[in-house]
Amino acid sequence: MVLSLTESGARLFVTRFLEQFISIGCVTILEEGGTMFIFGEKDSTCPLKSILKIHSPQFYWKVMTQADLGLADAYISGDFSFVDKDSGLLNLIMILIANRDQRSPKSNLVKKRGWWTPVFLTAGLASVKYYLKHVLKQNTLTQARKNISSHYDLSNEFFGLFMDDTMMYSSAIFKSENEDPRTAQMRKISLLIEKARIEKNHEVLEMGCGWGTFAIEVVKRTGCKYTGITLSIEQLKYAKAKVKEAGLQGRITFMLCDYRQLSDARKYDRIIACEMIEAVGHEFMDKFFSCCEDALAENGIFVLQFTAIPEALYNESRLTSGFITEYIFPGGCLPSLARVTSAMASSSRLCIENVENIGIHYYHTLRCWRKNVLERQKQIIDLGFDDKFIRTWEYYFDYCAAGFKTLTLRSYQIVFSRPGNVAAFGDDDPFRSSTRKNNII
């Protein structure tokens, strides 16, 4: 591999950093021409290893100058690949996480690497360019619809190629690692219905209705009346068609509507928000809970499912533009559990009835989605997308899966209500065993 002077300097910079940084796991870099670098544990029995094949010296330059975004850009552009095509990328991110987590944020090594800014590795400010783009994507009423559309309106056919026929774009709940995703998604729906205690006489609001599967299932199972809101035109078209096919138009209503535009006059007995709060943003979290307070009936229940980042990483994460906000979800912001509960406390009378972490199930969900994307590359290309697009989504799924596998990310289901809600919870028997213990890994 022939390197220019600047590329040689970048290689020296990156390899020296990796020599100091990696002590857990093993990362091997193979260059075309035979040059090899090994970092970390050199024992052949090391359980966590990743071997990179460098195809372009631009790999070093991008990583040196753009840190985590450079690593992502290099992979998406084909500047490097992995010997182990199934687990190489996942293992690399897990190794970087493991080595970050063993060090104090005040260590000399951390201080020396202020250029490296991914959420999983360090705290620090992103480049001015990415930071400004991040600020401009904040979820105002106008911008929120653009942010949602840029992701969810890509193609219903594309989403259908990697999800199962439930089209549930959120963590499933598996009974075993080998269970089919559809069954696991239906279990998640059952759990949401159970936690919300939905009954026939209830009016249910779903914030972020997706492609409509929850709507159809909850109405079929309980006979309730349902309203769902979305900012995605493509989701709305698909969901309406599925409801018409099911013959449930009389009990299901969908609206192209921001949560901030809901009528103050209408109250709902139950509210469900399954992985939509990540699109709310830090600046609007209090407003979100204020809207939930206004929309929820006095004896109502609100069930929220969301991905959470550790509190120690939250402030730096929300102030930077990382891979997810740059490539996948513009305007997105993973909240911490503390941010959610503080917004709840300051903007509503809600209180927490139950919290459950289902994060390990998200790891399995993401690995299923990744597998489907790679197995159906030809169909995806036939839709008009290219190899870069496919590598972007592969990186996205492995990036998130590594977070859940290492317990850096959590996926919470929280049940909210108001103090004194005897109508909903007064018949609970504390001595009655759970009916679903065996449904969770």
TrEMBL record:
Name recorded for this polypeptide: Cyclopropane-fatty-acyl-phospholipid synthase
InterPro entries from the UniProt entry: Arsenite_MeTrfase-like, CMAS, SAM-dependent_MTases_sf
A Pfam family it matches: CMAS
A Gene Ontology biological process term: lipid biosynthetic process
Taxonomic superkingdom: Eukaryota
Transmembrane segments: none
Native organism: Arabidopsis thaliana (Mouse-ear cress)
